[in-house]
Each structure stands twice: as C-alpha cells, then as structure tokens.
C-alpha cells in the first residue's frame, strides 16, 4: 500500500530524566522497542550517555537500530556546577532542585530542533519535561509520558490532588484515608512532601506536569497487569487515562556488565545458605544522617543475620557520615558485607542466598525485587516511596514496614528509626515464623506471574504489541 507504515520502520524518540531511577528503566524501555524493530534515538547529555554506552554499543553490534543523540546540559546557565548533569549526583536535592528544573526547561529549544530535524513517529519523554507535549504537537507527533512509577502510586497521587483529604487535618501524625481507591489506603501528613502542603515553585511544576499529562497521548508504565490490576483499571477507567503496562523492564531487558558479573559480593553470596542474607540498599540518593546510619549499623549487627549493605553516600561529609564505629567492621566480618560502590542490584536480588530486601521503595527497586521474588522490609524516605510502601505491605502483602514516618528529601533532623526497631523487623523477616513464610510465599507467586508477562500472549507483551499497532496507524508527523 502506498504511504502505508507497514513497510516503513517506525522511529521513536526517548527523552529520559537525567537521574538514575528514571534513566535505567527508560533506557530499558527504549531497548524493548528497538528489539521489536523500531529505530530508536535516545536524547541525553554526554555524561549520562556514557553510563549506558557499553549496553547500547552491544545492541548495535547485534544489529539493533538504537543510538544516542547528544545535547549539552545547560548546567552553568542554570547556576549549577559544571559537570552536574544528573540528579543522582546532587546532594540535598531539594535545595538544588529549582536550578536543576530550570536546566531541564532550558532544554526545550535544542529538543525542538531535534524533533524538527528527525520527525520521529512518537516521543516518550519523562514527566519532568511537561513542555514536550506542546512542542511535539507542533509537528503532529504523539507524546507519551514516562513517570518512573507504577499505577498504584499514580492513583494515590490523583486521589490526593482530587480530594485533598489532608487539607483539613492539623496533626502531622493523624492517619487519613485516600478517597476513591480500590482499597482502604491511609497516609499521614508527615509522609507527604511540602509541595502537597504549601504553595511552592516545585508545586507549580507538578501542576504543569499534571496538566501536560492530561493532554498527552498516553502513559507508559513499568509494571504488569497482574501486579496491580485494580489500579490499572482505576487509572484507565476511573481516571480516564490511556496507559500501557510494558514491565517489568528489568526482567525483559537486562544490561548486565562484565564488571557487575564479577563483583566480589556475588562470590560472597555463593558461600551463604539459600534465603539467609538480607540485602540493604536505599537507591541512588539515600539522605541519611550519621546518627541514622549508626542506628542501622547497630540494628543490623544486633539482628545476628547475614547482610549486604550498600553504603554509598554523597555530598558534604559523606565520608565522615559513612564511617562506621570502631570495631564494627571486624565484628561483622564474614556475616556482613558493606559495599561502598555501585552494587549489581539486579544480580544480588536474583541470587538464591538473598532472602530479604530492606528497601526505600523506589519503584525500580520494588519491581526488581518483585521479579526476583524477594520479600521486603520497607523504609520509604521521599518522592512517591510512601505510596509504594502501602502497595508492598498492604495490597501485595510482600513486605513489613520498619515504621518510617517522615518525608525526608534532604539530610536533616527527622525522627530517627531506632536500632531496636531495625533489629526487630530484620528478625521478623529473616528468622522467620509463619508470617515471614507467608510473605515469602506471596513474593514467589508474584515472581512466577512476572516471568510470564513477556511470553507471547502475556499481558505486557500484548500491551506493547497494542501500542505498536496504534503507532503504526497514527498519521505521519508533518513539518
Ligand atoms: N541501583 C543499583 N546499584 C546501587 C543502587 C541502585 O543497581 O548500588 C539501581 C537499582 O537496581 C535501581 C535504580 O538503581 O534500578 C534505583 O532506582 P529506584 O527507583 O529504586 O530508586 P531511586 O534511586 O530512584 O531513588
């Protein structure tokens, strides 16, 4: 057929936020599209491209049509230090956030120039680039949004905005119910970010994000239907948004480097009994005080359980804050391993010796541990992590909470979680008993479900196919 897209290779632009927790899944998604025959161009800055160049070069050698298109990050124009082009490298993020978000806005013109030059068939851009919807519309190009989180959290955020259930509550620690959701979910004001309580510049950015989402073509989600069916349906039918679940992307599209495969922690794990080790990692940001780190160290030691603890801090006094008390490392030798660099998390979670995961409930960590069938101890800190904790502990019932109550984006004076509570919850999950066994058995069930979704006819495979078909039928972009 003349003019048909059948014989034509569709071209997708991916434009991820420059932060590990968004880049990792967005690039995995980009690779997923390229493995289904798309030409894929990932727009990012030189330092961020370098983090993934090994993986993308490997894909190219296999014959996939995937490449980076580099743009400069306007660090200096936005008042950021030179070389600062990734949110995960920023200490005390909320202080620096206005400058970082200003830099993101300054990318509009270079991005528009690229769109005009390449005229891709569609764009997948991070939520933090709300202006992409309008820029893409100028050329008739559909814009899809990637939030970096799951359906449950998107539904919780909508309930907070729509019903403002915390509006009339004075106490920070009184629980309130989130109206309109499939389950009875409660939060406290202390678990909400300031932008949800007082007007702020960041709050205005989130309003722009919400508004652009409403006008965009739809949403791509790193999740699968069977994980949160009530919330996928709520998002589509009650909130009326178009969305495709195409995860867990870590399972389908792994980019494991030789360095990760050779990491010493893996042979250390080989020497441990099945399900005996607790893996402790709080993502790429982890804003802990020295006092809180001491409590974690003492709690892990007192628990008597084997553990791997990723203790990689950044910013002022990072080295000092992460210094352990005298004699600690000798006392835990053989039983506990501290990793001070980037840990091969997906490989660790998949190792048979790992029987639990103490996590900050970042969405990628949540999905990776769901795919690995590992039960969790939840310790949320900021962003939508308190939402994800509720999904894990109350809806999926594959985790127990450490009891963190305060939203905490910067290293500051928040309530400390005490060593006794840490010891107790670690023993509750790792030493076992009936409750721990139930958590583990449900975690294993989710893993089994996750393993089927990319088979032909599986839910994520089918949703991706449906999206591809829809994009084929969409009219070509125009100049
Ligand atoms: N990660 C890793 N090694 C580390 C720390 C983090 O591989 O030492 C990866 C982790 O597997 C996940 C991502 O970094 O894919 C962190 O994303 P998440 O959404 O869990 O948390 P964030 O860093 O955004 O707070």
> Based on the structure, what is the oligomeric state of the protein chains?
single chain
Q: What is the domain total for the residues?
A: 2
Tally of helical runs: 20
Q: Which radius of gyration do the C-alpha atoms yield?
A: 22 Å
Small ligands present: uridine-5'-diphosphate
CATH superfamily of the largest domain: Glycogen Phosphorylase B
Give the low-pLDDT segments: none
Profile the largest sheet: 7 strands, parallel
Number of strands: 15
CATH architectural type of the largest domain = 3-Layer(aba) Sandwich
Query: Structural class from helices and strands?
Result: alpha/beta
Major sheet: order of its strands? 3-2-1-4-5-8-9
Q: What is the CATH class designation of the largest domain?
A: Alpha Beta
Structural shape:
globular
Summarize the structure.
The chain is α/β, with parallel strands linked by helices and 479 residues long. The protein is 44% helix and 13% strand.
């Amino acid at each position: 057929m003349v003019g048909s897209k059948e014989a034509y290779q569709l071209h997708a632009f991916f434009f991820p936020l420059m932060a590990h927790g968004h880049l990792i899944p967005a690039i995995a998604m980009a690779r997923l599209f390229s493995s289904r025959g798309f030409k894929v161009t990932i727009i990012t800055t030189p330092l961020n491209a370098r983090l993934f160049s090994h993986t993308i070069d490997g894909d190219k050698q296999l014959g996939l049509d995937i490449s980076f298109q580099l743009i400069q990050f306007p660090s200096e124009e936005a008042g950021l230090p030179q070389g600062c082009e990734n949110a995960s490298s920023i200490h005390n993020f909320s202080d620096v956030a206005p400058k970082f978000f200003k830099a993101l806005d300054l990318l509009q013109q270079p991005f528009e120039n690229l769109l005009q030059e390449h005229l891709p068939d569609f764009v997948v851009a991070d939520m933090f680039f709300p202006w992409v919807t309008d820029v893409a519309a100028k050329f008739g190009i559909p814009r899809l949004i990637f939030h970096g989180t799951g359906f449950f959290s998107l539904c919780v955020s909508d309930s907070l905005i729509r019903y403002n259930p915390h509006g009339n509550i004075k106490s920070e620690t009184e629980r309130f119910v989130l109206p309109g959701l499939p389950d009875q979910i409660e939060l406290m004001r202390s678990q909400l970010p300031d932008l949800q309580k007082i007007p702020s510049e960041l709050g205005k950015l989130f309003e722009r994000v919400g508004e652009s989402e409403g006008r965009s073509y739809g949403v791509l989600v790193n999740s699968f239907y069977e994980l949160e069916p009530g919330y996928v349906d709520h998002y589509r039918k009650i909130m009326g948004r178009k969305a495709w679940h195409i995860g867990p992307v870590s399972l389908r599209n792994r980019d494991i480097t030789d360095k990760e495969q050779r990491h010493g922690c893996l042979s250390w794990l080989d020497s441990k009994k099945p399900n005996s080790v607790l893996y402790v990692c709080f993502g790429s940001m982890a804003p802990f005080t020295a006092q809180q780190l001491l409590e974690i160290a003492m709690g892990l030691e007192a628990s008597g359980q084997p553990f791997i603890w990723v203790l990689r801090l950044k910013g002022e006094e990072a080295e000092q804050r992460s210094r352990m008390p005298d004699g600690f490392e000798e006392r835990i030798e053989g039983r506990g391993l501290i990793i001070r660099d980037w840990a091969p998390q997906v490989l660790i979670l998949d190792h048979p010796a790992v029987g639990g995961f103490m996590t900050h409930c970042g969405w990628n960590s949540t999905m990776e541990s769901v795919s690995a069938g590992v039960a969790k101890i939840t310790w949320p800190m900021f962003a939508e992590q308190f939402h994800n904790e509720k999904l894990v502990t109350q809806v999926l019932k594959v985790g127990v909470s450490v009891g963190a109550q305060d939203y905490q984006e910067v290293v500051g004076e928040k309530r400390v979680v005490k060593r006794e509570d840490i010891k107790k919850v670690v023993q509750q999950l790792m030493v076992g008993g009936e409750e721990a066994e139930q958590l583990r058995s449900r975690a294993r069930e989710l893993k089994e479900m996750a393993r089927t979704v990319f088979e032909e006819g599986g839910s994520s495979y089918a949703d991706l196919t449906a999206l591809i078909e829809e994009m084929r039928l969409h009219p070509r972009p125009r100049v």
